[in-house]
Amino acid sequence: MSELLLSSAAPLVEAYDLGLVDLDGVTYAGHDPIAHAADGLALARRAGMRLVFVTNNASREPGSVSDQLSSLGIPAASDDVMTAAQACATLLGDHVAPGSRVLVVGGAGLVTAVTEAGYVVVTSAEDQPAAVAQGFSPGLSWGDLAEAAYAVAGGAVHVASNLDLSLPTARGFAPGNGALVGAVSAATGVKPFSAGKPAPTMYAMAVARAGAERPLVIGDRLDTDLAGARAGGYPGFHVLTGVSSARDDVLAAPGERPHFIGADLRSLTLAHDAPVLGESGWWTCGASSARVVDGKLEVVVDEAEQDPVNVVRASCNAAWTFVDAGGVLQTESVPEFAV
Asked: What keywords were assigned to this record (predicted)?
């Protein structure tokens, strides 16, 4: 059965009681704010939706993250932030006993999380750590990665905060933690365990902390945020302000597909109509329609269309049902949508 877009007759902020909000690409890009993020989240809170900011970035303390959010007009406290560092420290417990030595390769946020989880933090493979906890930090050097490789080659369990290959910044995409973890893996031949998205660990932790009943994952990356939503059984809202594009939505594999799509965070305040299948295989959403014929995506946008995302929504259901039925979609027929 196809994993299609959902509908919500009520605005998303009313249909869901908790927003699990990603940071990079959703609320900010590097040190710069994302357009309409502060306004959209303020409206969400005003409508009664609680927010927890869930990030694969393990380099910073929750308080540092909340301070940055507050400086961008998104008031937040440290308890409103769930980091991959915290999830990484939790995942360590599946492999080594509390009190064990752990070589931390990462920033202050990871050091704090591992320490608070009851482990002894060391800085060298010569300290014979039972595990290596690796997270992103812009100050990491070749020497840091070498120590991690020495420890893992010596038998230490390798746990990564996340495997994101890229990191969005104000200047573009830079190497992420996954790229640095890959260097250690290439040197040792050992595949690490990962705590961050797309594993749903952080989502489950955040939902439990908030005591929420109807959580909604909000993210910009299909391969982490939305894949994590699918893996955890949570509905996912893809906001088109970061890494993954509207075209990526149409081409998404079942395990990475969003349940809702919006241009920016203001779309949280809107009801979302799911595309409807009509005659001749046309899927219609708003004043836009799409279908697949002989493997090619066809789209029609009426002049009356007010929401440019509707053509993306129609295209998603058209493409997904075709592919899930065994069809081969000609990717070159999928345009770069002007959203």
From this structure: Hydrolase
Give a yes or no: residue 339 inside a domain.
no
Query: pLDDT of 256-294, one tens digit each?
Result: 999 999 999 999 999 999 999 999 999 999 999 999 999
Report whether 190 contacts 158 (CB < 8 A): yes
Active-site residue (options: 22, 164, 225, 307): 22
Task: Give the residue numbers spanning the domain of 294.
Answer: 276-333
User: Is residue 24 flagged as an active site residue?
Assistant: yes
Which of residues 292 and 199 earns the better pLDDT score?
A: 292
User: Which of residues 160, 178, 194 is at a domain's end?
Assistant: 194
18-56 per-position pLDDT tens digit: 999 999 899 998 889 999 999 999 999 999 999 999 988
Provide φ and ψ at 137, rounded to 5°: -155, 135
Q: Which of 17, 24, 248, 273 is catalytic?
A: 24
Location of structure tokens 């109509």: 273
Please choose, from the candidates 190, 180, 157, the residue with its C-alpha nearest in 3D space to the C-alpha of residue 91: 157
Who's near 324: CB < 8 A, 6+ residues apart? 1, 2, 3, 254
Quick check: is 32 catalytic? no
- Specify the 3-state DSSP secondary structure of 104: strand
Confidence of residue 58 (pLDDT cuts 50, 70, 90): confident
For residue 7, tell me if it sits in a domain.
no
Average pLDDT rounded to a whole number, residues 216-238: 97
Dist. CA 313–CA 189, nearest whole Å: 41
Residue after which a domain boundary falls, among 223, 250, 269: 269
